[in-house]
Each structure stands twice: as structure tokens, then as C-alpha cells.
Amino acid sequence: xxxxxxxxxxxxxxxxxxxxxxxxxxxxxxxxxxxxxxxxxxxxxxxxxxxxxxxxxxxxxxxxxxxxxxxxxxxxxxxxxxxxxxxxxxxxxxxxxxxxxxxxxxxxxxxxxxxxxxxxxxxxxxxxxxxxxxxxxxxxxxxxxxxxxxxxxxxxxxxxxxxxxxxxxxxxxxxxxxxxxxxxxxxxxxxxxxxxxxxxxxxxxxxxxxxxxxxxxxxxxx
Length: 222
Fold this sequence. Notes:
Elements: H1 12-22, E1 26-27, E2 29-34, E3 40-45, E4 48-53, E5 56-62, H2 73-81, E6 83-88, H3 97-100, H4 110-113, E7 118-119, E8 128-129, E9 134-147, E10 152-165, H5 182-185, E11 188-190, E12 196-198
Antiparallel strand pairs: 1-11, 2-3, 2-6, 4-5, 5-10, 6-9, 7-8, 9-10, 11-12
């Protein structure tokens, strides 16, 4: 027996909660920015996706703050300066993801508070987290207002200018054909209801993609 959940019959929070449990695992963009006073900001966003390779674009959804219904500090910062950094959420962030996500006052530097070091980036004005094994330095490409009056959301599309990758997570130093060692990177994904998913050796498997050939029969039985 299958149950039918009609989204139109439920509220925004319940709908988002269900989507967050079924669209899994989701990558986490640990976004670092800096405000006009030089105070760093670090915040995780799991409504995040790659969009295209030419130009290299990624998208992050920014909702409103629950505490005061204002815009997120990360959003304010990146819109003011026009850039931001996505630090790949790996094991170095594992114990603090939910704590970093708290809605701290604007004068609080979440990175410093949790023992991380913000350093200058290579191509953008926003800082990067030194401890992150990989990061994407982005400029704001466009913004797309979405959502509703009750649940406003802005999709920020960022153009990636460069990736900064630690040698420890590269399978080889050949950046003309970059290959990431997934297990060394150890990304953490978001599931629903405050649950997360780690990358573990027994959780990774490989399949070859073989092009379809006309008149070729495949045995797909398992």
C-alpha cells in the first residue's frame, strides 16, 4: 500500500520537512563571507546543487532567519561584496554543523567561535576556512526570488572562479584531469530531521557507464 501526500494540503514547514527527508543525501555548502566591518561569517546550507559546467555555476537557496524573519547574514554579506566561498563540508566540520547553523548575532564570527581559521581567498574578497580540504571561490552570477510570501526564498547562483584543493584529497597532482579521492575527502551529506550521512568505505560503490549500442541485448537480471 502506498500513501499519497498532497503538498497543496499542507503548510510550508511540513512540505519542506518531507522534501528534506526524501531528497537525500544533500551536499552541504559551508559558506564563508565577511561583513562590512570585517567580521567573518560561516553558515551551512544543504539546499545546494551544481547547475552547469560552462559557465561553472552552483546554486544555493537562502531562506529567512527564523528568529526575526530577516535575511540571512551570509546572504547580506555576499550580496554586499558580490562573492562568497563554499567550503566542502567534510569530517573537519562534522561535530559542529548544527552549532554553526545557529542564528548568532551579526557580530559573532562563527568560524572563530568553533575553532576554525578564516584566511584570505585567492580570487574573491570573502575569506575561506583554512581547515577545509577543498573549497570553491565564487562570485554572484544572478539571484532568483522564489518561494511565497509566507516562505520567501532566494536562489543565489554563483559562478565558480577557482577550486582550492588540498593534495591529500587528490588522487594525482594532474589538475588538467582532476580526480578527487572521495574517501580522503570524506564529505558529509544532510538528511532529514537533524541527521547526517558520512562517506565511508563500505558505503561507496562503482559502476561503469557503457554507451548504448543498437541491436545489443543486455541481461539486466540480478
